[in-house]
Amino acid sequence: MLQSHKFSSAFAEVDNTPNTLTEVTYLRLRRDIIEGKLRPREKLRIEHLKDRYNASSGTLREALSQLLSDALVVNQGQRGFHVAPMSLTDLDDITRTRVLVEGEAMRRSISAGDDAWEANLIGAFHRLTKAEEKLGAREEKDLWEWEARNRDFHEALIGACDSRWLRYVIGLLYRQSERYRHLVISDRTLPRDVHAEHTTIFEAAIARDADAVTEAISVHIQLTCEAIRTLMPGLDIE
């Protein structure tokens, strides 16, 4: 997602081609941080990044400055840029805050949602269901398809929310939580039925039951946190 779209799209990637080298570099760096290719606390040396991202020093500094606003990068004075640290304490804070802001956005979306919102949500859930049916094969292309459909579904849920600031904060927290989820994304050993969770969320949203859908979203978010805690009990990369 480009900087200019952070107030309009919280989860889904906006289908726009980056217009500048800074935007291209920013998106590549952000993806590599979220996916763990650039590790927590790793020093981001401009001279090392130039070859990796085929970018100039100026372009990299601009991209890293944008990542500061995402809280994915920290600037430690004379020590330069580093990938932001991670810890279970931070994950718990992200999780609690996500529950609050996504619940509020969902309530607003249900209140304002019209037939177009409902139709978009039905379509997004159908596409997500089809993608989830393919996940058993564990092929990378199927996982990436599911990732995209999952983002689209959660975007559709809050599609009628009228607060651009809620979208911005939700997107910020979602990308932070994605860093943690990518630590355990390939592990399928936990007894968790994500499709059932999505179905509960969808049915409550279509029924316009604000209390039920916010509770279902809360459970969905917290189960992800619990899964990470189970698989990474010693996580403390600060």
From TrEMBL:
Q: Where do the TM regions start and end?
A: none
Give the UniProt keywords, A-Z.
DNA-binding, Transcription, Transcription regulation
Q: Does the keyword DNA-binding apply?
A: yes
Enumerate the spans annotated as HTH gntR-type domain: 19-86
Q: Does the keyword Lyase apply?
A: no
Annotated PROSITE patterns: HTH_GNTR
Spell out the InterPro entries in the cross-references: GntR_C (IPR011711), TF_FadR/GntR_C (IPR008920), Tscrpt_reg_HTH_GntR (IPR000524), WH-like_DNA-bd_sf (IPR036388), WH_DNA-bd_sf (IPR036390)
Quote the Pfam families the UniProt record gives.
FCD (PF07729), GntR (PF00392)
Q: Which PANTHER family match?
A: HTH-TYPE TRANSCRIPTIONAL REPRESSOR GLAR, TRANSCRIPTIONAL REGULATOR, GNTR FAMILY
What is the protein name given in its UniProt record? FCD domain-containing protein
Q: What is the lineage of its organism?
A: Bacteria, Pseudomonadati, Pseudomonadota, Betaproteobacteria, Burkholderiales
